[in-house]
Amino acid sequence: MGDEIIISQNTMGNVEVVKIKGFMSISNYMQFESILNQLIQKGSIKIILDLSELDYISSAGLGVILGSIKETQKLGGDIKVGGCSQEVRNILDVFGFTQVFTVSATPAAAKVLFGKT
Amino acid sequence: MAKKAHPTPEFKRGPGLSIKFSLAMVFVIVIVMCSVMLVISTLVRDTLLEQMRIKGMAVARGLANNAAEALVTMDRLLLAELVDKAAKQESSIRLAAVVDGQGVILSHTDYKKEGARYRRPRPQTQELNQEGNVYRYSLDNVESMEFSVPITLSHKTGRVAKRLGSAHVVYLLSPIKEAVAKTLEYIMIITACGIGLAMVMAVFLVGRITKPIRRLAQATEQVGRGNLDLRIPLTRRDELGQLAMDFNHMAANLKKAQAEMIIKERLQHEMKLAREIQAILVPQNAPQVSGYSIGMLYRSAEEVGGDYIDFMDMGKGVWGMAVADISGKGLPGGLVMAQTRSTLRAVAEKDPSPVSVLAHTNRKLCPELRPNMFVTISYMILEAPKHRVTIARAGHPAALIYRLKGRRCELSLTSGVAIGITGPDMFENLLLDKTISLERGDIMLLYTDGVDESCNAQRQLFGTKRIVDCLEACAHLKADQIVLKIDQAVNAFIQEAPQHDDMSIIVIKREQV
Predict the structure, then answer these.
(1) SS3 B499
(2) Min CA distance, A114 vs chain B (Å)?
C-alpha cells in the first residue's frame, strides 16, 4: 500500500517548524523519524510539529514524537504540537497525549510557548 | 558418499573443438586451392596454346616461303628436304606437308601419302586468316592443331599473288595437357602440405585455447559442489581472462549470498522460536465464567506480536483481565509484551484494584522502556457474582458497553495516559477506576487499535463506529460468535490489504439465563 507523507520544514525565529501531510503508517514513519533525528543532531532542539494536514498517525509515529520530545527535553529544548487535524486529535486523545502535552492550534501559538521557557 | 561429478544425463559429448576447428580449416583450404587450381590450369593452358600458335604459324610460314621456288621448279627432292626440316623444328610437330594447287600432296613426312589428296578430319575449331588457317581436331584419336599457310609467288616477285599450293604443319596437343597436369600436381602437393600444417596448427591452437576453459570447467564444478572459496588465478588479459575474473566475482557473490541466507534462515528460526515462546504467554482460550460467555481474539501482524491479553483467576468468580498494545511490533514489541505481562501479573496478585495495578506496573515498566516506546493498557476486574466490572484505562481505546436495555453501545471513557509517556505522578493523577454494572444481555468489548485502525487499500480506517455497528447487530450471539463476526467484518473491510498491526479483542457477555 503506497501510503505517503509529505514533510516540509521552515524556520520561525530560533524554532524549526516541521509540517507533515498525509497518512503516517507503519510503512513510512521512518521517513519522519529520520528527519527529526537529523534536526536534533544538527542542534535544532526547539521544534514545532504542524499536524493540521495529517490524516492519520500510527502508534509507531506517535512513538517517534514521544521519543523525540524526551530527547530534546534532555538537551534543554522541546517539541510542541502547533496545529492538529481532528482525526489526529482523536488518536492523541485516546493515548492520553493531550492530557500531558499542550496542543496549540497553530505553529505561531506553539511558538509562544517556547517564548515563555 | 563421495559423488563423482559426471556430465548431466542430457549432455552427450560430441566431436571436440580441435576436430571441428581442423575440419573448418581443411574446408577453407580445399575451397581456396580448388579455385587456385582452376585459374592456374586455365592460364597455363591458354599461354601454352598461344605460344604453340605463334611457333606453329612461324614454322608453316617458313615452309611455305621456302617451298615456293621448289614448287615452281617441281624440285621434289628439295620439297622433301624442306618438309623434313620443318617437321624436325619442334618435338611436338606430328607431321608436315606441302600440297599443290589442286590439293594433291607433293611432299609429306609420311612419304606414302605423297600423290594422294590432302584431307583433314572435321575440325572442332578453326580460325581462317589471310596469313594462314588454324584448325583443331582429333586425328586418329590424338588431339592436334594444324597450321596451314598458302604458298604464293608474291613472296618473291612482289606481284599479284598466284596461289601455287599450301604448306601444312600439324602439332600434337598432348604436351600442353601434360604441362597443365604437371602444374596441377604441384599445386595438389602444396595443398596437401598446407592441410597437414593447418591440422597441426589447429590442434595446437585449440589446445592453447581450451586449456583455460578446461580449468574454468573444473572450477565451476568445484563451486557447484559448494567450494565457494575457490578462485582462478588471473594470468590472461584476453576474453578468457575476463571470464575468469567474472567467475571469481560470481563465486564471491555466491559466498556472500549464501552467508546472508544462513543468517536469514537462523533469524527466521529464532523468530519462530520466539513465536512459540510467546504463544505460551498468550491465553489460547477465553475462560469459562458462570453466567457469562467470554470470547477472545489474538492475531499478530508479524511472527511475534506486540499486543498482550491476559485472564487471571482471582477465585470466587473474580477475574483480572488485561488488554494492552505495545507501540512496536516484532521482536522489540514481543519482548516488552513479556515484560509487561510479568510486571502486571506480579502486581495484580497483591492488589486487585485496577488503578493500583496500572500505577505499579507503570512505576516498574516506565524506566525500562526505550524513549520511543509506550504501552497502552486497559485493566479490569470482573466480579461475576456481583455482575460488575471495575476498569482503568491507560491511553488505551475506550471499552464499549452494549446495553440490552436500549440496545445501544456506550463508551467507557475515563482519563489516563499510556505507560511511558509521562512520569509516575502525572500518570497516577490521571488514572481513574470506573465501575460498571452488567445487566442480563449486556456486553463489554475491549480491543486494541489494530482493530479500529485496520486499513483498506483506499486508506480508509475500519473505525470505532463499525465496531459499534457490528456489536449492536450481533448482540444476540454468544461472546465467541461476536468476536468471530467482528473479525469477519474487519477482513471483509480490508479485503486484500495486509494486516499492519496486531489485533486483540476480548468480549464479555452476561448471558440472559
Answers:
(1) coil
(2) 20
